[in-house]
Specification:
The chain has 249 residues and is an alpha+beta fold. It has two domains: 70 residues, Winged helix-like DNA-binding domain superfamily/Winged helix DNA-binding domain (Arc Repressor Mutant, subunit A, Orthogonal Bundle); 159 residues, Endonuclease Chain A (Endonuclease, Chain A). Helix content is 49%, strand content 20%. The strands form two sheets. It has a seven-stranded mixed β-sheet with strand order 3-9-8-7-4-5-6. Strands 1-2 form a two-stranded antiparallel ribbon.
Length: 249
């Protein structure tokens, strides 16, 4: 029997041997399993416990003796479904922290091209450098937080930024949070904007254009990080594309 498919889903050779032995023997104690699977007696209970945790083995106790049984082979499919669900959850968790990891990487490798601005005026100054680079040759990407703590001010600020993009006919892709759906209606409905939505937020609004990345942490007093580095911008664009593929219209 080809056991490679079982190895590929994460079972060890000893786990496979014990499971196959139980399929052949039916309900039995540990001794016959040791002989049939050819595993050492000192390891049999550890192997059985691992299989039990994976849902592939069960046992009952009769007169203080454990009798083990193999789960129906269809259970392997349920095991795979659980692994797939776990992988999706892990991927979702990594996606949430990926912007922070990218930021750590970019700040450590490009300290001389990063500037930090504090306050609304500082945020305006950071975005001014971005606006000066606007033309119709490249796509503008934006995603992340909603309108932050200063909702009215942020709406005005990002609406002005949108109008600056319109002047230069800059095509834009924006991933909004569901909580901000309809807040920036002029952008969501613009012919130059493709919009999608995600349920979760990152701690910041992230904007990428050409070799610029602007990360605005929208607290009561905003903190804005301006990075001018091609590799960093490319990294954030890659992350944006991953998020774009899972976002909803």
């Amino acid at each position: 029997m080809d056991i490679k498919p079982l190895e590929r889903i994460g079972l060890t050779k000893s786990e496979i041997g014990v499971y196959l032995a139980l399929l052949k023997l039916g309900q039995t104690t540990a001794g016959p399993i040791v002989d049939e699977a050819r595993v050492t007696r000192s390891k049999i209970y550890d192997i059985l416990e691992r299989l039990k945790n994976k849902g592939l083995v069960s046992y009952i106790t009769k007169q203080s003796t454990k009798y083990f049984s193999a789960a129906d082979p269809h259970t392997i499919l349920h095991y795979l479904d659980e692994k797939e669900s776990e992988i999706k959850e892990e991927k979702s968790s990594v996606l949430k922290i990926l912007p922070q990891l990218l930021l750590e990487q970019s700040l450590s490798g490009a300290k001389n091209v990063a500037e930090i601005f504090v306050g609304i005026r500082g945020m305006q100054n950071a975005f001014t450098q971005l606006v000066q680079a606007f033309d119709s040759t490249e796509v503008y990407y934006a995603f992340g937080a909603g309108s932050g703590e200063n909702t009215a001010q942020m709406q005005v600020f990002f609406s002005r930024l949108h109008h600056e993009r319109l002047k230069k006919k800059v095509r834009t892709k924006i991933i909004f949070t569901e909580s901000s759906r309809g807040v920036f209606r002029s952008q969501e409905k613009s012919l130059f904007v493709q919009a999608k939505y995600v349920a979760n937020t990152t701690p910041a609004a992230i904007n990428i254009y050409k070799n610029y990345v602007v990360i605005a942490i929208l607290n009561k007093e905003p903190i804005t990080i301006l990075i001018n580095n091609q590799e960093t911008a490319d990294s954030f664009r890659e992350y944006f594309n991953v998020m774009w593929n899972v976002a909803k219209k």
